[in-house]
Amino acid sequence: MATSIRAVVFDLDGLMFDTEALFHRVASAMLAERGKQMTSEIMRAMIGRRAVDSGQAFKTLAGLDEPVEDLMAEAKTRFMAELDVAVHPTPGLFVLLDRLAARQLPLAVATSSRRSYAERLLKNHGLLDRFQFLLTAEDVVHGKPDPEIYRKAAERFGIPASSVLVLEDSAAGLQAAKGAGTFAVGVPHEHSPAENLHAAALIVSRLDDPAVLALLEDEHVQ
């Protein structure tokens, strides 16, 4: 059944900002120092998930013996040291946000990251006030790919999930969005290729892809 798009939810890492590239560099350096190598399998298992889940994947798949907490603390220290200078908005982000503002559609962020980090990243780029609310790791019991976070987003908007457009870059995030009943759009990148984004209703090349903008102009999507 056709339904109108009445709100839009953005993932954060890898979708709005190229943070996955920085994390890949940090994780690769950590593994190299331990005589290990970063692989696409490790990256796929980590993208889109909460730190507690991605940390366990990192340890297991890389064959490390150190406690997960220690590994994630080291990764966080290295990552945050570069966050303010090494991370940039993804292509088309501001074009899409301006188009959404013109349509006066309510926006939210639903991320597996923690609130303090999400707010810092959005404030750094002057974007925090563009969003009606943020849902973060602290707001859910079950992280992506569980649909809880996107169900909560629809509830906060007060609209059916089928009227929510979700933009995601990860397999876990798209699985969560699809499970919640939203219209899920995948935006692949180097560390999350299109062939892994099976749950997407639509895959586009960038945030201001004509197909995304067309969704906003059309009254209905299928």
UniProtKB/TrEMBL annotation:
Pfam families: HAD_2 (PF13419). It comes from the Bacteria. NCBIfam families: HAD-SF-IA-v3 (TIGR01509). This is Haloacid dehalogenase superfamily protein, subfamily IA, variant 3 with third motif having DD or ED.
